[in-house]
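Exercise 7. Given the encoded structure of a 447-residue chain, write a plausible sequence.
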C-alpha cells in the first residue's frame, strides 16, 4: 500500500497493538467493527456495508461526513504551511477563527483559548477559573464544584469535577477541594419528558448548600454540561440553569458551561447558552468546532475574565497565563474550523436542527411503549432511550442493542442501559424514521 492512499485494509492483520479507548478490547478484537469510509449521513464498513450514522460519529460530525468545503480547506492549508509554533508566534488562521467564534458566541464571550480536545478544554477552563480569582487578589477561591453524572473528559481536572464513578474509581485521590451538586435526573417525576422537564429547578439550590458548607470565599467555579450527554441525555429542568446563574452571581462564583456536545447546533441553536439565554463566564467546546475533521477544542471567556489577566500581569512583556499546548490553534485545525463555521452558516444548520427537532421528538417518543423501554427523553436533535436493565447484568441489554443496531446498519452509542441518538444536523425526515424503526425492531427482538 502506498502512503498516499487512504487506509482501508489491515495489512498487518494485527489488532493487538492498538489499546483502544473506552472499549471492551477483548470483545472488539474478537468481532471487530471497522469503518473505512464516510459520506453525508453514512459510514461504510470494511465489509462494504452502509451504516446510517445516528450519533454524528461521536456527537461531533454535526455537518455530516466528507463536507467538500472542509476537506478542501484542510488540503489547501497543509500544502502551504503544515505547522506554526503556538507560543510567542502566530498565524492568521488562529486569529480569524477566534474572531469568528466570538461573533457566533452569545454575550461578551469574546476571547478564545485553543486546545486539541474537550478534555483539554475542561482542564484549561478549570485552571483559568482558579487563576482568574488569584489575578484579582482573591486567591482563596480554589474549590471547584461539579455535578453527579457529569462528564468533563478524562484529564485529572475533568474526572475530579466529573461524576461518572467508573471514570474516577481507578485513579487515586484526584484534585483536592472538589464537591458535587446532585444530578437532575428523576424518572419518577420526569419519565417520558419532551424537552425540558417541569420538575427539578430547585436542585440548583444545592449550590447554596455548598456555599453554606465551604463558604463562598473558597469557591472558584461551578462546571456543568447544560445538557448532560454522556450519562444518558439529562435535559436541564425548566428554570434550573437560570437558578444556577443567579446563585453564582450572588456569590461571585464563575459559571462554566461545558458545551463540548451542546455547542454547534445540537440543541437547535449555536450553543446551549444561546438557546437558554444564559451567559456563562467560561464556555468549553470541541467536537463540532471542526466537524471533527481535525482535533480541536476551545475555551471562550467573557471580557471581564480576559481583562483580569491582562490587568494583573504587569508590563507588556509578561506572559499572562502559563498554559498552552504545542498544537493550540494548529493551522490545519483552524482551516477546518473556519470552513466548518461557513458550512454551518451557509446551510443554516442550527436553524435546521431546530426545525427538525419536533419531527425527531415524535419519532423518538414512538418508542415510549416499546419493549424494555422505561424512559425516552429528548431535546434538539438528541434523544435517549432508557432500557430496563437485565436482572444482575446492568448495561448488558443496551450493549446488545447497540451491537444489533450496528448489524442492521445503524450506529448509535450506549451508556449504562441507555441508547443515545444524536445524528448529524443534516438528517432527513426519512432517515429519522429509519433510525427509530431500526431501534424499534431491535428492541422487539432483544431479550
Ligand atoms: N466534556 C464533555 C461535555 C464531553 O461530552 C468531553 C468533555 C471530552 O472531550 P474529548 O474530546 O477529550 O473526548 C466530552 C466528550 C459518549 C461520548 O458517547 C461522549 C464524549 C466522548 C466520547 C463519547 O457519551 N464526550
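Solution.
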Amino acid at each position: 500500500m502506498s502512503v498516499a492512499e487512504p487506509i482501508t485494509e489491515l495489512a498487518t492483520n494485527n489488532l493487538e497493538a492498538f489499546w483502544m479507548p473506552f472499549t471492551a478490547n477483548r470483545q472488539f478484537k474478537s468481532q471487530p467493527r471497522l469503518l473505512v469510509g464516510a459520506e453525508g449521513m453514512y459510514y461504510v464498513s470494511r465489509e462494504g456495508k452502509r451504516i446510517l450514522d445516528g450519533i454524528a460519529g461521536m456527537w461531533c460530525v454535526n455537518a455530516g461526513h466528507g463536507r467538500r468545503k472542509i476537506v478542501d480547506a484542510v488540503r489547501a492549508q497543509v500544502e502551504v504551511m503544515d505547522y506554526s509554533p503556538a507560543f510567542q508566534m502566530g498565524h492568521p488562521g488562529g486569529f480569524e477563527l477566534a474572531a469568528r467564534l466570538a461573533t457566533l458566541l452569545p454575550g461578551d464571550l469574546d476571547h478564545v483559548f485553543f486546545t486539541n480536545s474537550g478534555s483539554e478544554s475542561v482542564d484549561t477552563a478549570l485552571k483559568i477559573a482558579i487563576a482568574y480569582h488569584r489575578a484579582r487578589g482573591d486567591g482563596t477561591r480554589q474549590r471547584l464544584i461539579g455535578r453527579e453524572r457529569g462528564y468533563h473528559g478524562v484529564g485529572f481536572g475533568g474526572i475530579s469535577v466529573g461524576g461518572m464513578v467508573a471514570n474516577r474509581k481507578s485513579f487515586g485521590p484526584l484534585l483536592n477541594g472538589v464537591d458535587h451538586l446532585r444530578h437532575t435526573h428523576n424518572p419518577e417525576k420526569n419519565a417520558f419528558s419532551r424537552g425540558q422537564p417541569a420538575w427539578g429547578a430547585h436542585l440548583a439550590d444545592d449550590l447554596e448548600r455548598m456555599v453554606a458548607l465551604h463558604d463562598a470565599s473558597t469557591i472558584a467555579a461551578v462546571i456543568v454540561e447544560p445538557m448532560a450527554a454522556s450519562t444518558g441525555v439529562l435535559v436541564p429542568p425548566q428554570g434550573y440553569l437560570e437558578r444556577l446563574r443567579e446563585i453564582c452571581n450572588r456569590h461571585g462564583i464563575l459559571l462554566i458551561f461545558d458545551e463540548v456536545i451542546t455547542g454547534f447546533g445540537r440543541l437547535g441553536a449555536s450553543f446551549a447558552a444561546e438557546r437558554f439565554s444564559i451567559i456563562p463566564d467560561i464556555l468549553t467546546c470541541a467536537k463540532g468546532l471542526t466537524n471533527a475533521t481535525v482535533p480541536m477544542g476551545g475555551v471562550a471567556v467573557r471580557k471581564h475574565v480576559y481583562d483580569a489577566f491582562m490587568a494583573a500581569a504587569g508590563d507588556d512583556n509578561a506572559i499572562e497565563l502559563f498554559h498552552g499546548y504545542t498544537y493550540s490553534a494548529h493551522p490545519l485545525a483552524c482551516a477546518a474550523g473556519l470552513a466548518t463555521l461557513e458550512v454551518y452558516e451557509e446551510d443554516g444548520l442550527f436553524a435546521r436542527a431546530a426545525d427538525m427537532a419536533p419531527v425527531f421528538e415524535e419519532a423518538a417518543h414512538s418508542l415510549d411503549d416499546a419493549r424494555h423501554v422505561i424512559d425516552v427523553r429528548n431535546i434538539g436533535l438528541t434523544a435517549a432511550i432508557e432500557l430496563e436493565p437485565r436482572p444482575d447484568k446492568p448495561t448488558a441489554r443496551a450493549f446488545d442493542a447497540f451491537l444489533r443496531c450496528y448489524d442492521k446498519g445503524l450506529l448509535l452509542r450506549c451508556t449504562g442501559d441507555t441508547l443515545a441518538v444524536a445524528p448529524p444536523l443534516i438528517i432527513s425526515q426519512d432517515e429519522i424514521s429509519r433510525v427509530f424503526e431500526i431501534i424499534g425492531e431491535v428492541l422487539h427482538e432483544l431479550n
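Remark. The chain is about 35% helix and 15% strand. Students should compare their own answers with the one above.
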